[in-house]
Each structure stands twice: as C-alpha cells, then as structure tokens.
Amino acid sequence: MPSVPPVAGLHHIGIAVTSLDEALPRWTGFGLxxxxxxxxPTEQVRVAVLLAGTTRIxxxxxTGPDSPIAQFLGKRxxxxxxxxxxxxxxxxxxxxxxxxxxxxxxxxxxxxAHDCKVAFVHPRHLLGVLAELVEDPHATDHNP
Length: 144
Hints:
Layout: E1 9-16, H1 20-29, E2 33-40, E3 45-52, E4 55-62, H2 68-76, E5 79-86, H3 90-99, E6 110-111, E7 117-121, E8 131-135
Parallel strand pairs: 1-4, 5-8
Antiparallel strand pairs: 1-5, 2-3, 3-4, 6-7, 7-8
C-alpha cells in the first residue's frame, strides 16, 4: 500500500449554518472570538473564522442555493460539516491518498479561505466524515 504523508494536525472544524448573522452571536456569546469573515466564491460560501484558544472553528454560510453547504443544510440541517487537516502540500497529499484508494472530490486543490489551497476526501473513506485537506501558507512550519 502506498505511503500517505502524515497530517500536521487539525486545522479547523467546519460547521454549516443557515445564517452567519444568526449564528455568530451564539458562538461569540459562548466565548469564541471572531477573527474574520470572508467570502470564498469558488465554494459559494461565506466563512466566519472563530477561535477557541488555539482551536479554529469555521462557520459556513451558503451564498447560493446550489452550493455544497446549501445542499448539506437541505439534507441534514445545521451542524458539523467537516474536519479539516493541515498538510504541507495539498497536491502531494491528494496524490498519495488517491494512490491508496481514497475517493477524492476533485483532482486538484481549489482556492480556500485565507489564501489556502484545499481539497476534500469523500465521507465514505472516513466512515461518514467529510475530510478537508488544507495547505495553509500562513501556518508556521505547516502546523495549523
């Protein structure tokens, strides 16, 4: 079996919400700190980055009815959407996972929030959990 490089760690937890305006007061009122809000047109999503100490939570609001987050919300409602893992090189990680038989959602990294490159691994590979690979140019030594 091909060798897959280890991940650097958990980069963030993605949580689908119908509205950032409704969700943010609950999360900041719970004690998390809002770091930023950014739109990612390629994913049709607005992302609010919250920090709980060094743990990053991303609230994901769809910007269109055909976005993956809108589809998720339609099927499952608000809640945990994915776990994101920091990697040194997104394409290398994708190639190694594909060679090991992991089903990927795409063949090349896509632009993500904060200048990151991202890719997704189909939930069936991790027993129902959608995994995101994140190559973060802002991570020190590729640590999320």
